[in-house]
Write a structure and sequence with these properties.
Largest sheet: 8 strands, mixed
Shape: globular
Strand content: 25-35%
CATH topology: Nitrilase/N-carbamoyl-D-aminoacid amidohydrolase
Distance between the termini: 37 Å
CATH class: Alpha Beta
Structural class: alpha/beta
CATH architecture: 4-Layer Sandwich
Number of strands: 18
Number of helices: 6
Order of helices and strands: EHEHHEEEEEEEEEHEHEEEEEEH
């Protein structure tokens, strides 16, 4: 099945969730006018991420239930337009009382097809997730939809190729990648989209915002500040980089440093054809017998490091 997907690249207003939701609804209308059947938004597309300077009250104000006010408004728009939406991410107040960074897929009937919880939250000052009480997800689901098999990876999940590889092995046709990375990472988004496409044989749809975040804390070493004190209140630019990749090719691209939308035609039959081709010519396509190092608990951190984080690991055993 062929359809048009739209990776939305909004200019996010700091501290104005209502304005950001209004913009998202308008961008859905714009994408639909161009024939899009699916719209995708960035991580934290309504709020920007939590920071180490925020209080618990700030985080509670950002968080919502899903379904909730924001996803209900988007669901109404999906019904009105007969389209699907991958709702970036929202800090979700989950039924178990925990907060998670969650992306929801909403269908043209207004119902939630599925939710994905970010598996690899980070604890940088500008995106302070475990420190803000945000727990990771422990599942990598593939969602069956009338348009094909879809999966989601969020932000840091995107930087670990094990995840798109798993999704490829599970047969995902499209992997949506809502991210929220500052301007210095624009080339990385395009590189990872290509790499993830090669590893998974799936379409990769990456959505990242543009705009400014004012007076936020960042890591001094990452942004060449002279001291951590000087990095505790920085104006941080975001440059987009939203794109759609198939294999090593970008087949859709938004203009960097400008609000806009990237479009591409997806053919749900193409990933299966690529996988069948590889299966026919690469008898040693994968070697799971060689990969045990990847899943050893002691290799969870980079070689030679042993960092003691001041937050719980938040990883619970599966029951």
């Amino acid at each position: 099945m062929k359809y048009i997907v739209a990776a939305c690249q909004p200019n996010i207003a700091q501290g104005d969730k209502a304005a950001n939701l209004k913009k998202a609804l308008a961008m859905i209308d714009e994408a639909v006018e161009q024939g899009a059947k699916v719209t995708v938004f960035p991580e934290y597309f309504l709020t920007w991420p939590p920071t180490s300077a925020m209080t618990k009250a700030d985080i509670d104000d950002m968080a919502e239930t899903i379904p909730g006010p924001s996803t209900d408004a988007i669901a109404k728009k999906c019904v009105e337009t007969g389209t699907y939406c991958v709702c970036g991410t929202i800090i979700e107040k989950c039924d178990d009382g925990k907060l998670r960074n969650t992306s929801a897929i909403i269908g043209p009937d207004g119902k939630i097809i599925g939710k994905y919880h970010k598996a690899q939250p980070e604890n940088a000052p500008a995106k302070f997730e475990p420190g803000s009480g945000i727990w990771p997800g422990n599942e990598l689901p593939v969602f069956e939809t009338p348009l094909g098999r879809w999966a989601i990876m969020v932000d840091m999940d995107f930087s670990n190729l094990e995840i798109p590889r798993v999704y490829g092995l599970k047969g995902a046709d499209v992997i949506f990648a809502p991210v929220c990375w500052s301007a210095k990472f624009v080339p990385v988004i395009e590189t990872l989209a290509r790499a993830s496409g090669l590893q998974s044989h799936a379409y990769i749809v990456a959505s990242n915002p543009v705009g400014w975040r004012k007076s936020i804390p960042v890591h001094a070493w990452a942004f060449a500040a002279q001291s951590q004190e000087s990095a505790n209140s920085v104006d941080l630019s975001y440059g987009g980089g939203s794109c759609i990749a198939l294999g090593n090719n970008l087949i859709g691209k938004a203009c960097n440093f400008a609000e806009g939308i990237a479009y591409a035609v997806v053919d749900s039959a193409t990933p299966s054809a690529g996988r069948a081709n590889d299966a026919s010519i690469y008898p040693f396509w994968r070697r799971p017998d060689l990969y045990s190092e990847i899943v050893k608990p002691e290799t969870a951190q980079p070689w030679g490091t042993s960092v003691k984080h001041d937050v719980p690991t938040h990883i619970e055993p599966k029951k």
